[in-house]
Amino acid sequence: MNKEINGEMINIPEHVAIIMDGNGRWAKKRLMPRTYGHSEGAKAIERTCENADELGIKYLTVYAFSTENWKRSVEEVSTIMNIFRKYLVDSIERSNRNNMRVRIIGKREDLPKDIVEKMDNLEEATANNTGLQFSVAINYGGRDEITRAVRQIASDCMAGKLSPDAVTEDTVSAYLDTKELTDPDLLIRTSGELRTSNFLPWQIAYSEFYFTDVLWPDFDMDELVNACRYYSHRDRRYGGVK
């Protein structure tokens, strides 16, 4: 979709995925604890949802907590979980007001039971919303997601529900956490790191990558527009020749 922004026509991607990085470094620069950075990062999520919707982005998927993040200190993990608890509850009213649908992707078995219940409540409460389709990856790892999908495919083959010869790329996609979503057109990573960190490895096979030195709590509309502008100038060939 083309959108005019400050007199410039920019091709807006349908699906944007974001690796939100830099909360701890943002806080450290301000002589504050890492936990303060996570709190401010949560505000940046709310702001980015509003900005994405304003630009006409249809799908937004963010990496909030990876399967590897459990290795962080008990205090930091506990703070992040409490931020999730508040965010999941507060999001119901805000999402419905903005006609935003929220999905949670990732492995739920390892999460506290009350957080899983709040996830279910949020998804159910926003299921009929038709605006921005917002997905949050919590306790998510791309390899774990693919492993779970392969395990379920194997189980269905053994049960006679699926023939091994009938398994295609579309079949695999249908068993992933993102089965209701399109693949990301654009992947953004903040804080200057140049890796994908096990985020959506299957889905980003043909995504454009935009890396920025901006730390996540400082991510704003200007930086989102910069990412879309970068995407707009990419020649997407999907392995073909033009």
TrEMBL record:
UniProt-listed InterPro entries: UPP_synth-like, UPP_synth-like_CS, UPP_synth-like_sf
List of residues binding Mg(2+): D21, E208
Family: Belongs to the UPP synthase family.
GO BP term, example: polyprenol biosynthetic process
Protein name: Isoprenyl transferase
One Pfam family linked to the record: Prenyltransf
Note on cofactor: Binds 2 magnesium ions per subunit.
Subunit structure: Homodimer.
Role of this protein: Catalyzes the condensation of isopentenyl diphosphate (IPP) with allylic pyrophosphates generating different type of terpenoids.
The enzyme's E.C. designation: 2.5.1.-
Keywords: Magnesium, Metal-binding, Transferase
Residues binding substrate, per UniProt: 22-26, 34, 38, 66-68, 70, 72, 189, 195-197
Obligatory cofactor(s): Mg(2+)
Catalytic residues (UniProt): D21, N69
GO molecular function: ditrans,polycis-polyprenyl diphosphate synthase [(2E,6E)-farnesyl diphosphate specific] activity; magnesium ion binding
Enzyme class: transferase
HAMAP family: ISPT (MF_01139)
